[in-house]
Write a structure and sequence with these properties.
By secondary structure, the protein is α/β, with parallel strands linked by helices. The chain is built from twelve helices and eight strands.
Length: 258
Amino acid sequence: MRKKIVVGNWKMNLTLQEGITLAESILSSLTGIDDNRQVVIAPPFTHLTAIGSLTKGAAHVHLGAQNCNDNASGAYTGEISAAMVKSTGAEYVIIGHSERREYYKEDDALLARKTSQALDNNLKVIFCCGEPLEVREAETQNDYVEKQIKAGLYHLDGAHLRNIVLAYEPIWAIGTGRTATSAQAQEMHAHIRAVIASQYGKDAANDITILYGGSCKPSNADELFACPDVDGGLIGGASLKAEEFLGIIAAITRAQKQ
């Protein structure tokens, strides 16, 4: 049975003190999480150890990082290795977020190396994929996302796939207030599952968790999470407000088990 997961990606927001306050507010009100449901909090690097000390004692709440370098170590000023991420107590790392792809020109080959580094250091990877507006308007989004998945993940064997969570980000819906309809989300998630099945088999595809990331909020979370192939959300702006994030988490607790 694949897990339902809600991930809070804080991006470059909140001071350490503000982050601790937010995490405490979320954890103090969190209910309804069970063995098949998880919450992941992904704060900035500087906050990982402090937030990790709070999540460590919380059942089914995990710590994640927003990125890691593709090298094990070395003269890479300002960078953070997967081993460093792991040493903070983090269990997850986000790889290939659309902002990393767009702003920092991270290509498929680089993301494949980052994914391998993370897995080599016993981190679980939240691997992001998704199309920009011009691709969606050209109706070539399926081919675009399929290429991202093949280039980023197909070098892995089936055992490694157990530590991969996929996140579909329609780039045209991130921070714009636009949201893919539940039908659009379901269509793409089903396609992603088929892409995984073509390489790793139907059982592996059925087991992998696929998140939706694109202006998910409490008002639309129930409809999105009711889709059979949508297993949760990668949440940006709404994760910075405890009430909104808790509302999305509540929706995942209501989602029917697969």
